[in-house]
Every structure is written in C-alpha cells, then in structure tokens.
Amino acid sequence: MENLTFIQKLVHYGTSFLVRERLNGDYYIGYNNVRSITKTFNYLKNFSSHRARMYLYKNKLQSVLIDNGIKLEPEDKLIDGWLHIKNSNFPFHKEFLETGDEIFKRLEKNESTQKAYIEMINGLDDIEKYPNLLNFATSSELISVVANYLKCIPVLTEISFYISEPVNFDATGSQLFHIDIEDTRVVRLIVPIEEITEEHGPFSFLPESITTKAIKKLKYGTLKGTYRITDEQMYKHIAKDKLIKATCKRGDLVFADTSRCFHYGSRGQTKPRKLCMVNFHSDIPENFKQTFGAGDLLKKYIKPNDSELRKMLLDYSYYPGKKI
Q1: pTM
Q2: Rg of the chain over CA atoms, in angstroms?
Q3: Which domain, by its residues, includes 281?
C-alpha cells in the first residue's frame, strides 16, 4: 500500500486514513475536522434522497415498518450508547445463528487471515446462499431499534463473521481503545454465535457519557491526540470499573454506538471467540469509503418485490419513487 497515491489511500482506507496520527511520516488534519468535512460533503451529495428519507422517518416510520412485515415493536432502546438484549426473539435470529455455524465451519478450513489475531468472512458474499442473513438484518423489529436510535432510516453496511484466536503478543490495532470513524451515530450489532465469557476476550467499551469525558481529557480527535489509545493513557483519566465487557450467551444481542463509545476488540482470551457484527449508520456518513464505492455493495441484492424499507437499507441513495 506504500506506493498508493493520496486519493487511492483515501478510497482504500476510508476516512480513518486522514485521521491517523502518522502514516508514512506525515500528519493529516485530525478526527474532528474530517468528520465535519465528510458529513457536509455527503449531505450535499445525497441532499434529495436524504430529505425524502428523513420525511419518512419523521412522519411514516411505523407504516414503513409494517409494510416490511413487523410482528412486534421492541420496547428496548439504546441508553448511553448501548443495549444488551438477552435471549432475543427477533425474527430470523435462530436461522441467522444456524447460518453462522455453517460459515464458521468454512472459516476454520480457511488459512487466510486479515489480522494476526482475527480471521474474518464477509457475510455479504454469502447473501445469495444464506438469505436469512439479510432477513434478520433487515427485519422490522431489529430496524425499529436501530432507526429510533439513529433518528433516521438507516443503511446496512456490514455483515461480517469473526473468529478471534488466543495470542501471546501485546495489544495492538483494534485491540487498543478507539472510536470508529463512520458517522455521527453508528449502531454496531454484536451477535454471538457461541457464548462469550471473559475467557473469550469479549468486546469491551466505555458508555457514551464516560467516553465524552475521556475525549476531553485525551484531546481525542484533535491534532494533539492520537487515534489509538493505550490502557495507560485511558486509565489516567477514567476509572477501570467504568469499562463494560460484553459477555453474552448465544441468543443474546449487544448493540453499541462505536462512534460514540471508546471500545476495543478481543484481547487476553484463552479460548476462541466467534461472533458476527452487523453495522448500520445514516445515508450521509462521515466516511469517504462509503461515498466512493463501499456504499453500493448491497444494491445488487435488491429485488423488485422488496419492501421500500429493505430497498433503503440496501441502497443509501434510494428513496420511494426513485428508479433503481
């Protein structure tokens, strides 16, 4: 990647490229500035579709959910940037877990690795083979929780399966505290395929209210701050008992706003961790990666008879009445 041009790096890495404190010896413009620039750019680029989608959210969300086949309206809401639902009864959740079992069997035979401690399969590549991946991720019951938190008709951007293996080296990369650079608000849904205990290295995070305090103390997002934060840096300002470790059982769901909550991935585990992450944000994200191509990955799975909500979830520029 060292020989890529500035624009090629921007498309490949997304917004995170611009806010890394150092890349090949160069400094860039800082987290907060990048978020503001990309949000404004995407708002102007998608002005018409965004306005139409916001009208539906504010005035017709319930009818849109019903048209998509809602069976129950969950009372659960994200509070302080997170939510843990135990023993979920959301539609297609059971089938989603069974699909996860099949995918992990295939993953265990795959020797390729994305990171030294994580192996990943992009679930988007398996949608035609496993339709229940989308059936679960676009169910009205699930989207009701997501939309009411994001305050918009969301876009589905990721369905990825991860297995994290025990390692002996020090925490690095996503194993350090950080905030995702995707949008003003993000919902990252963690679906454990198998039970996750402390022995499995659970996803760990600080609630939004604690993160807000840490951001000020660490000058996070400014040119004086860094993107990855070590435990030593964090715990100079925040008590360790504020950290939430998302231990959960198969059948549970954990929602977290990873753009507003400091978090880190698996570390220190003694057993492999198997989970799926499903990601949502608005149609005007704070990341150029969605703007320059990644946002179109799911459009090809739209079918003529799909509900208007499902079409909007799979295509960030779609709104009712627009031709596909």
Answers
A1: 0.86
A2: 19
A3: 41-314
* Interval 103-158: pLDDT, tens: 888 877 665 545 555 666 777 778 888 999 999 999 999 999 999 999 999 999 98
Kindly write down the DSSP assignment for every residue of 51-120, as one continuous string: HHHHHHHHHHHHHHHHHTT---------BTTEEEESS---TTHHHHHHHHHHHHHHHTT----SBTTEEE
Residue 162 is part of a domain; what is its CATH number?
2.60.120.620
**Comparing C-alpha atoms, which of 170, 233, 176 is closest to residue 205?**
176
141 in a structural domain: yes
Cβ atoms within 10 Å of 152's Cβ, excluding its own: 25
The answer to whether position 324 is within a domain reads: no
Kindly state whether residue 286 falls inside one of the protein's structural domains: yes
DSSP 126-164: GTTT-THHHHHHT-HHHHHHHHHHHTS--EEEEEEEEEE
Burial of 301 (0-12, 13-18, 19+ CB in 10 A): middle
* Residue 24 within a domain: no
Q: Report the residue count for the chain.
A: 324
State the total domains in the chain. Answer: 1
Nearest Cα residue to 38 out of 6, 14, 8, 7: 14
Of 307, 190, 176, nearest to 256 by C-alpha is 190
